[in-house]
């Protein structure tokens, strides 16, 4: 059986152990990052939508950094939005703060009905830097 090459950002191991998933897994030159949400240090959702999106990106960037990556290495993005008709424009006011410059990664946006109390989640696939 192959052992997963798991990446853990500093200070969040308890969250992942409690919920029984890995924040990211390295495989064949790629980094597969689990969905990141805008959680406060205690794990609760940040109530302000823009602040929640910023926290989700900060949590994502912490995982990427732990794998020696940045958002510039991201090639594929999936975002999940509760009630996207109402929230998309507000979320996309924040995204450019983290998105970087063109060429941009591809993206799939999925409207959902529930995200465990959160309104936004982002998961990515990144190309690992070559040594």
From TrEMBL:
GO molecular function, one term: deaminase activity
GO cellular component: cytosol
Transmembrane segments: none
InterPro entries: RutC-like_sf (IPR035959), YjgF/YER057c/UK114 (IPR006175), YjgH-like (IPR038743)
PANTHER family: 2-IMINOBUTANOATE/2-IMINOPROPANOATE DEAMINASE RIDA (PTHR11803), RUTC FAMILY PROTEIN YJGH (PTHR11803:SF44)
Protein name per its UniProtKB record: Enamine deaminase RidA, house cleaning of reactive enamine intermediates, YjgF/YER057c/UK114 family
Species of provenance: Phytopseudomonas punonensis
């Amino acid at each position: 059986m192959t052992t997963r090459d798991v990446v853990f950002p500093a200070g969040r191991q308890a969250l992942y152990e409690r919920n029984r998933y890995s924040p990211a897994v390295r495989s064949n030159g790629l980094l597969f990052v689990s969905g990141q949400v805008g959680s406060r240090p205690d794990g609760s959702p940040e109530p302000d939508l823009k602040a929640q999106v910023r926290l989700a990106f900060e949590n994502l960037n912490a995982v990427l950094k732990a794998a020696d990556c940045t958002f510039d290495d991201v090639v594929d993005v999936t975002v999940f939005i509760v009630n996207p008709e109402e929230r998309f424009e507000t979320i996309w006011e924040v995204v450019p703060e983290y998105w970087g410059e063109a060429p941009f990664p591809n993206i799939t946006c999925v409207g959902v009905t529930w995200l465990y109390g959160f309104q936004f989640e982002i998961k990515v696939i990144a190309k690992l830097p070559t040594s």
